[in-house]
Amino acid sequence: AQKVTQAQTEISVVEKEDVTLDCVYETRDTTYYLFWYKQPPSGELVFLIRRNSFDEQNEISGRYSWNFQKSTSSFNFTITASQVVDSAVYFCALSEQNRGNEKLTFGTGTRLTIIP
Amino acid sequence: GAGVSQTPSNKVTEKGKYVELRCDPISGHTALYWYRQSLGQGPEFLIYFQGTGAADDSGLPNDRFFAVRPEGSVSTLKIQRTERGDSAMYLCASSSPGAGIETQYFGPGTRLLVL
Fold it and tell me: At CA B7, angle to CA B80 and CA B27, rounded to 5?
């Protein structure tokens, strides 16, 4: 069975600091996708990134970067020069292609608070 | 284009009542998912539609929960004889068909409170 673990329940950092959110996953499939979503106080899940299991290249998008390591089953998310608008709950999720059902298995989320 | 929309945004009901939650997916998206998110938890899968049919309803907690998508677009999640434990955020997501695993885009959710 697939599982996603986000061990950090809450993190607080001062604005402009860098912060890394950890994500560890378990799956028996060789083909899978990993996602990060942001959930601001409004409640809507906002898609940030998708990474497939065959592409271990790290990705950078502005202040966001992602480190995918299959050897440790981790897909960590770093925000550099954090801003108050980054305050939200962040979810890591895993999807396996199971008879066409690409349902997401989410971690329990990390609540990030950026202190001005 | 418009994103996924869900109505109502909030629903308060009394224990034992029947409720319907509506989801309008992104135009052209054939896959539709319902998730339930309890306070302090990540969303949990309920049901998946591909077109009009429920391809996987293994996440529905019991037979009080039912969902339909009669024309392959709008979906309605129906909960009978609501219980206080049904209180949660109900999220809908849709994705477009593709060769691999596609990104799911979420609506704003319906926050259900059962008194």
Answer: 115
Q: Do B50 and A100 touch (CB under 8 A)?
A: yes
Q: Strands (DSSP E) along B15-99, which ranges?
A: 19-24, 31-37, 44-50, 53-56, 65-68, 75-79, 88-95
Looking at mean pLDDT, say which of A37-46, B16-25, B90-99, B101-110 comes out highest. Answer: B16-25
Query: Which 3 state secondary structure label does DSSP give A68?
Result: strand
Q: Is B53 on the interface with A (CB under 8 A)?
A: no
Take residue A92 and report the two structure tokens written for it: 């890591």
Higher pLDDT, A83 or B28: A83
Inspect the interface and report whether the beta carbons of A42 and B108 lie closer than 8 Å: yes
Residue of A52, A101, A110, A111 to mutate for B, most B C-beta atoms under 10 A: A101
